[in-house]
Every structure is written in C-alpha cells, then in structure tokens.
Specification:
30% strand; mainly beta; twelve-stranded mixed β-sheet; ten-stranded parallel β-sheet
Length: 248
C-alpha cells in the first residue's frame, strides 16, 4: 500500500511516468505503458496490458474474469485484456479479460466490453453500452448510448449505431441444443442504424445501408437500401451525395 492509498502489487510493471490516483488497485502481472494515468478506485486485474498514453478514469474495472452459468454459450478460453495506446476507459466502465481494444478507442462511462470482444482503433462506445462476448467491432465505429451489441455480432469499419439499438442472436431464446451456434447480426462497412432499432438474429445490414429510427429488422438489408417501419421495408436508396466518401 502506497502513502496515497493506492495499491500497486510488486509484480506489476508500470513505466516511470505512470500516474496512479488514491484508492486504485493494480495487481501482479499488469503492464502499463508510458504516460498512462489511472484514476481513483480503478481496479486493474492480473495480466492486463495497457499501452502508453491511456486514460483510465475513476472506478473503471479492467481484466475482470467472467462468471458464467453452467452450459453458457459464452464459455471459452479467456486470455489477457489488451488495450492499445491512447485509449480512454471512462468512469465505471468494465472491460473483461480476453477483450482487445485498439489504439485511441473510447469506452464510455458505465459501459461493458465482454471477454474475447474486439474493438478497433478509433472507435467510440457510448455511456452504458454493452459489447457482448465474441463480438467484433471495426475501426472508427460510433456506438451510441445504451446500445446492446449481442454475442458474435460483427461490425465493420465506419459504422454508426444509434442510441438504444438492440441486437439479438438466438431465435429459440435459450431452448436449443447445447453448442448450437448463435447468430449475431452483421453490419457492413459504413452502414447507419438509427436510434431504437431492433434487429432479429442473423440479419445482415449491407454496406452504406440506412435503417431509420425505431425500425424492426427481420430480414437482410441490401447495400445502400433505406428501410423503415416494423417490419422494416425498403423506401428508397442512399444517394451518392450521402456516401461516406463525401463526408470523410
């Protein structure tokens, strides 16, 4: 225990210019790169690797091990949590062991990133959002407040997912044979999903597609289609003037 009330285990490796606020706990086997700051009451579990120039805000928990019910679909090997340089983990966020966060990611207040999830460089996760186990998020993705991205989902680069979007991956809602594959949705490059959209298991949202707020998506959406309603229906196409290349 240090004089300021922080605890840094003897086996933790912190570069000389790492700052640790009072009440933080850093366990054995943690590695923290140059220029990183660790906030008050943050907890960093064994094996976590944090790149240089990161900001770990107050009360964040890094490297948490999952606790699963018997037969859980989330069962699997869990390695170390790896956080790229320049990332920010905001207050109260929980990032599990086995996750990987790219450089300059931002994980919002009270968010959760589960085991084996991957978040690409420059992506932003809004307050209270969840990236579930084995989900993959590409680079420069914007995921807004209170989004639930289900296990096994795939989000390609430059996607926008609006606040309160809910995704699902299990048509049987738990009543399936053990080991049956889950069907996470796929979001192709630069598609846009409006607030409050619900997506049923396995749907594919095409490149540059646009899903209007509040839609219920029960089937695939083709590239550049604009859909709305419940169930979602095609109303027009995304024009050339709205493509990402015009706004990059």
């Amino acid at each position: 225990m240090r004089e300021d009330g922080a605890f840094v285990a003897p086996g933790a490796q912190l570069d000389d210019d790492v700052s640790v606020a009072p009440g933080a706990v850093v366990y054995d086997g943690v590695r923290v790169g140059s220029g990183t700051s660790i906030g008050a009451a943050a907890v960093i579990h064994a094996g976590t690797e944090i790149g240089g120039g990161c900001v770990i805000e107050d009360g964040a928990v890094l490297g948490k091990r999952p606790r699963l019910r018997p037969g859980s679909s989330a069962k699997g090997a869990v390695g170390p949590l790896v956080i790229g340089a320049g990332a920010t983990i905001c207050c109260g966020a929980v990032v599990y062991a086995g996750a990987r966060l790219g450089a300059a990611t931002i994980i919002g207040d009270q968010s959760q990133v589960r085991e084996r999830a991957v978040v690409g460089a420059g992506s932003v996760l809004g307050r209270g959002a969840t990236i579930d186990f084995d989900a993959t998020v590409g680079a420069r993705v914007l995921i807004q407040t209170l989004v639930y991205l289900t296990g096994g989902a795939v989000v390609e680069d430059d996607v926008f997912i609006g606040p309160g979007v809910v995704t699902t991956n299990d048509h049987a809602m738990g009543r399936h044979a053990r080991g049956a594959p889950l069907l996470g949705p796929v979001f192709k490059r630069a598609c846009r999903i409006g607030g409050g959209v619900v997506l049923t298991p396995g749907v594919v949202i095409g490149e540059e597609a646009f899903v209007a707020a509040g839609a219920l998506v029960t089937r695939d959406v083709a590239a550049r289609d604009v859909v709305m309603g419940g169930p979602a229906r095609v109303v027009r196409r995304v024009g050339d003037e709205d493509l990402l290349e015009r706004w990059g």
